[in-house]
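Hey, resending since the last one bounced:
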Amino acid sequence: MPLIGFDEARAGGCLRGFTEWLTVRKGECTSFGWQALVLEEAFPDMELAGLNKLDILPSPSKRNTP
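The structure tokens again:
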């Protein structure tokens, strides 16, 4: 959290381009912010929930809706 606050206090200049660098390093497109990308790099076996996981949801016809 202190890193985010420091970056915000410096008008976002300290970490400018960091998300893009991490995305290129990963080698695939992502909508995650740098915080999630760092977590994925540090803990590769950890699954992050996000919009990229929507394809595993059941289709509307298979959901139990009242």
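Helices lie at 2-9, 18-26, 34-42.

Sorry for the duplicate.
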